[in-house]
Amino acid sequence: MIGICLQARMGSTRFRGKMLAKINGKPLINWVISRASFAKSDVKALLTSNLEEDDILCEIVISLGWQVVRGDSEDVLERYAKAVELFGLSHVVRITGDCPLIDPELINIAINHCLESKADYFSFSGIIDGFEVEVINSDWILKAYKNAVLPSQREHVTPYVSSSKRAKKVSIKLHEEDFSSIHLSVDYPEDIEVIETVLKELNSENFGYFDVVKLIKSKPELFMREEFIPNLGYRRSIEKDREFVKSLKAKSLSFEKTISHFKRAIEIIPTASQTFSKSYLQLSVGASPLFAKEAKGCIIKDADGNELIDYTMGLGACILGYAFEPILEGLKKQLEKGTIYTLSSTLELELAELISKVIPSAQMVRFGKNGSDVTSAAVRLARAITNRDMVACCGYHGWQDWYIASTTRSAGVPKAVKDLTLSFNYNDIDSLKKLFEQHKDKIACVILEPVGIEEPRDNFLKQVIDISHENGALVVFDEVVTGFRFALGGAQELFNVEPDLSCFGKAMANGLPMSAIVGKSEYMKHFDEVFFSFTFGGETLSIVSAIETINYMRENNVINTLWHRGQRLKTAIENLISEKELEDIAFVKGFPVRFVLDFKTQDALKLKTLFQQECAKRGVLFTGSHNISFSHSDEIIEKTIAVYSEVFEILKYANYYGLIEEMLEGEILQPVFRKP
Ligand code: PMP
To answer: How far, in Å, from the CA of 627 to the mean position of ligand 1?
Structure first.
């Protein structure tokens, strides 16, 4: 069913009552109806408002055999959706009441082209203003009705489909020239005069579009109107759009105490934080919480008392949740028994044995406090064992000289150290082979994050192990992130591969400072000689926390739950990006248990800042990282999806209208590592 839908109303702001304005003695509405009636279609209907002033239009069109659909005076799109449903239309032909000269033959051509080309949206390009015909697949009318938010989309009906990358858009030119600036529609009373002149020149009511084209070519002076601004109505609604987009911002949070703390902190603590990733580089000063007061489960409370859902979770440390009740009791008891001793504690033994049960390659175990402790211990151990100095790395491995030498934050690292650290690319086995060729018998170990946000391809991990061993180097898996998250035993368990040494940290003690280096006994035994020793090694609270965390995770199928809930969130975000056609500016990468939502384009950091700002106002602390914890309940995840949906919408249109920077309320985020 094809329906010609004539959009018309009496209440034009620029020319009130224009539909009854007389052209050669006949009202405008009658001109349009009588000409459009010659077009072939199943249904012909006037779409107008419920307002009383439009009753007269309905009476006229009904008397001329047309149907009527009426609806909200503000929401034009609603009338189209009603027409689609009422008449069961497959396609809508949109014409407007201000076009008295409309050519029925163009309507026929438009319908045929749209059907033949199976277009979702058909239009003529370069056509004279006053002859436009658009044909829209009704599915897109309904989709727009459901999803369109901008005033321009609701008022002008077709911008939603015509700007969608998903829609098949077909447009044809009827002539080489662009006549779109020639104005033969009725927006102002003075337009009537021009139209009457044209009609006089045509000297017949039986004319078509090409007769007008001929006239333009022979007497162009008749059509010269310098004061005319085309598409004024549409331009006005774009202005309304911009105001509307700005109004989508939620009310600002109070950051009074936060800012005052920040001012004090920046004077006494460089970067005002102990960790780059918790500093103003990653959190917008003025638009995001900066200081935590307390946290429980996955809810963090900031210095101003704002409560937000957290997905960064202490940079991935709090796998079960902040202050997680089931393990608190054990910690309290241990506190009363002492935190470090002059002697080693038996708890160390208990944890080492537990770890050797859950991590496949853990024949022996030593503990550290931060991830950097154990990655650096692994490198020193490998250097001692192989009597070689160079290291090949892939991923992030901590703050120590040997690794940070390879980054853009290497100030203070001696050149001699920098020369010893090489880098290769994930899933690019040739880049590792090349290092072994260039530095034959010099590489002590290959250290890599077994999986980050990219899936290993072509047996990459096994290939790394084989090639390294062929070249006499040890393989160290940096499982600081993947351990106790991707699987209890880390990526090595998930992908069934066995490194020589591996490093764990972050999640293993649910937020207490605890890390571990584990591996084959033949290598680990060298710690008898290699110096890896510090005062707080064996500190008991963290060990108890690790034991309790690991046991809780084993007994409660935590890993499975994390994958499951993370998948729901990740898929939902991917769907939002796709539904809202945001692929050019946003992406999700990684695994359900740990993924990032990040932004593209040269404005990526501004986009991220605006996203963080509007998420914070809606109760979600956004840093890009999604480290799913056991405290992220289904309900919390659904709430997050609803928040992201709203904020994506803001981002989409703020980006489209170039309003991002104008809408920011705080400082723009910065990268921790700049591009080299
Ligand atoms: N390795 C990886 C993969 C990491 O992500 C990190 C920390 N982000 C480290 C090592 C260093 O750990 P830490 O910051 O605890 O020293």
So the answer is: 14
User: How many CB atoms neighbour CB 568 within 10 A?
Assistant: 18
493-550 tens-digit pLDDT = 999 999 999 999 999 999 999 999 999 999 999 999 999 999 999 999 999 999 999 9
- Residue whose tokens read 């040997």: 402
Q: Each residue of 591-601: pLDDT tens digit?
A: 999 999 999 99
- C-alpha dist (Å) from residue 485 to 319, 508, 552, 560: 7, 9, 13, 10
Residue 65 has pLDDT above 90, yes or no: yes
pLDDT at residue 12 in the model = 81
Mean of the pLDDT values across residues 260-273? 98
pLDDT value at 14 more than 90: no
As a whole number of angstroms, the distance between CA 100 and CA 185 comes to 7
**Is the CB of residue 626 less than 8 Å from the CB of residue 598?**
no
User: Are 212 and 203 a contacting pair, CB within 8 Å?
Assistant: no
Beta bridge partners of 583: none
What is the residue whose two structure tokens read 């002697």? 343
Tokens of 565: 């809930």
How far apart are alpha carbons 237 and 239 in whole angstroms?
5
CA–CA separation, 41 vs 320, rounded Å?
63
Render pLDDT for 388-406 as a digit per residue (tens, 0 to 9).
999 999 999 999 999 999 9
Q: Is the CB of 402 under 6 A from ligand 1?
A: no
Q: What's this model's pTM, rounded to 2 decimal places? A: 0.93
Instruction: Please tell me what DSSP assigns to residue 255.
Output: -
Q: Whose CA is nearest to atom 13 of ligand 1?
A: 371
CA 394 to centroid of ligand 1, rounded, Å? 13
Distance between CA 11 and CA 23 in Å, rounded? Answer: 18
Instruction: Using the atom order of ligand 1, give the atom closest to the CA of residue 506.
Output: 15
* Six token digits for residue 168: 């098949």
Strand partners, 135: 93, 122
Residue 17's alpha-carbon distances to 48, 56, 87, 456, in angstroms, are 13, 11, 28, 68
Short-list 667, 563, 655, CA closest to 602? 655
Q: By the 8 A CB rule, do 538 and 344 touch?
A: yes
For 316-366, the pLDDT digits (tens) are 999 999 999 999 999 999 999 999 999 999 999 999 999 999 999 999 999
Residues 614/618/624/626 CA torsion (nearest 10 deg)? -170
pLDDT one-digit tens code per residue, 662-676: 999 999 999 999 877
* Closest CA to ligand 1's atom 1: 397
- Ligand 1 within 6 A of 509 CB? no
Rounded to whole angstroms, how far apart are CA atoms 660 and 263?
26
Is residue 433 within a helix (H) or strand (E), and if so which, with residue range? Answer: helix 429-438
Q: pLDDT tens-digit profile of 88-106?
A: 999 999 999 999 999 999 9
Q: Which two tokens stand for residue 499?
A: 């490194």
Q: What angle do CA 315, 317, 323 make, to 5 degrees?
A: 115
